[in-house]
Amino acid sequence: MNPEGHYVKVYCHDITGVGGNLKDGTGTFTHSTRTFSCGTFSEIDRPKVGSRYNLNGEHENKRYEFSNWICTHSGATSDFKEK
Q: Which one, of 26, 24, 22, lies nearest residue 6 by Cα?
């Protein structure tokens, strides 16, 4: 399981063709809810709720992946869950 806490250099890549890509963002992974929240997404390119994304970011200088996660909330900061 990926470590809980703050992530930097976060990348979010849409894998279903609906947009919502992020480069060099920040994020937080919470074990209790199994949620990865990240941003800041631009107003014109936000993730779509229900669509799948590959995410990755650095935590304590090590890169971790969150592959094929579903967007559960879309906004400047968006939430993703492993489903």
A: 26
